[in-house]
Amino acid sequence: MPPPLQPLAAAPACARTLADLLVALSAARALPKGQQLHGHLLKGGHLPAVASSHALLAHHLLTFYARCSLPELSLRAFLDLPAPPSPAAWSSLISSFAQNGLPAAAFDAFRRMLAAGVAATDRSIPPAAKAVAAAADSSRPPLAPHALHGLASKTPFAGDVFVWSAVLDMYAKCGNLADARRVFDEMPERNVVSWSALIGGYADAGMHPAALCIFRSALEEAVQVNDFTVSCIVRVCAAATLFELGAQVHARSIKTALDASPFVGSSLVSLYSKCGLVDCAYQVFSAAPERNLGIWNAVLIASAQHGHTSTAFERFTKMQNAGFRPNFITFLCLLTACSHAGLVDEGKRYFSLMKEYRIEPQVEHYAAMVDLLGRVGRITEALDLIESMPMEPPDSVWGALLMACRMFKDADTAAIAAKRLFETGSRSSGAHMLLSSTYAAAGRHVDAALARKAMRDAGIRKETGLSWLEAAGEVHTFVSNCRRHPRSNEIYNVLEKVGKKMAAAGYVADTSAVVKDVDRDEKCASLGYHSERLAIGLGLLIVPEGVPIRVMKNLRVCDDCHNAVKYLSKCTGRVVVLRDNRRFHRFEAGLCSCGDFW
After folding, report:
1. What angle do CA 264, 239, 460 make, to 5 degrees?
2. How many CB atoms lie under 10 A from the CB of residue 115?
3. What is the pTM of this model?
């Protein structure tokens, strides 16, 4: 009769085999099997670790739980290590916290490591830098980035490219771009992470020309850019609506196979959507070989902004069926889709569904709900929702209510919303102008004038309305009644000719929103050459027939211009895609994709 099986020996060879198994389970993120092995190690007496061979097991167990997004179990594995923990164990613990959204715990572990007399290394400094960058501004010690930079400078790893890239990335994500650039310029050696970090910093700060310039320099130095670099540049092109440049970057990503990355894919979806080419955005999404939550959210917001509400709902269902758990951005996309279609019941259902996923509504979700209720005229209900918020309503929430009041000419509630908005410390010129135009629309021109005077007395200047059109590699920008463009005479002539056809077709200017109390002819003259109309006029001259005229605007399109462009599309047979700060409008044959609901 064979002898019974003995417990696992503590031999180093056996420990090495178990460690290799843990490494494989970590790579596969096989949580159930890893937990079974953990239990086996506990029963076999291998944990808590005593021998050095057992310490190896505890260390790999720490890494396993970090990769399975269970940092609290990583800490338990760390505590099972024999004292004192090695520098590598400290580094793994710091990385576990930093990679799993616990920056305060990561930085605290880094400080405890230093207090224990363990020196910082090239493995502990990068995750500590990541933790500093990820911390909220309110919780981050003011001098933490510079303190960590100074500490890194005093270690033997002062010239290490990975350490300095982490420090550079930390400065960039903290918004200290001058420090990030100085570190970049002083680096004896740079890698793709260094370049990408600097590009990403400028992109996040909205410094698009600088980001593009650095990207060109990287290409000139033959840097092998990665998917993060390409994703950053595509995001820059999307934010600036640089379609042609973005398309070139897309072509380059195809040649280098970087388009297969879901990070690049999500940026491309946003690029084409923000440039008004939503069908191209859908094609990128459909062709994506790998999808993450980011690309799902990108296509959801594309569907919402272009008024494809049912498509957004269908894709949300498919996302759930694919095993993806929605986050707060997902629900913001869905609420936006409901708002743009006026679907109150569906919006309330998604707002309630957040609790089932243990997601607490943030101010952005409340602003979307206020916008939804306000768009359908349920202003009192929107005000009640604001009063029930568990946090202090910020200016975005009061601004959404103020916009609803403007749409429905509710001057009394507008005055309440504006007062509460100004109490938040907001110096938004848009809020003053909304209040003024609401009074004007309600026929209260004296109050409208007083609202404009209050804005001037506060030293607040009206935000300039801009519209721009990209054609033949050049961006043409216009303001209202602008005559600085080289082809201004042609633009005004073509708009005048089209205007006569529009009038014959039944177009009548809506002057209700003109805040000045002047005669109708003067009001009509002030409306006829708004910035978006000038950009469309140039489009009629230079955009080939059969190609949509794509115009971007930084403010909400006014009611009259919206109606005028519908008539223009009918009288010229041209398709116009107009993006304002609310949504996309596709004008074709006298109709708009928004259904006159925006």
Report:
1. 155
2. 8
3. 0.81
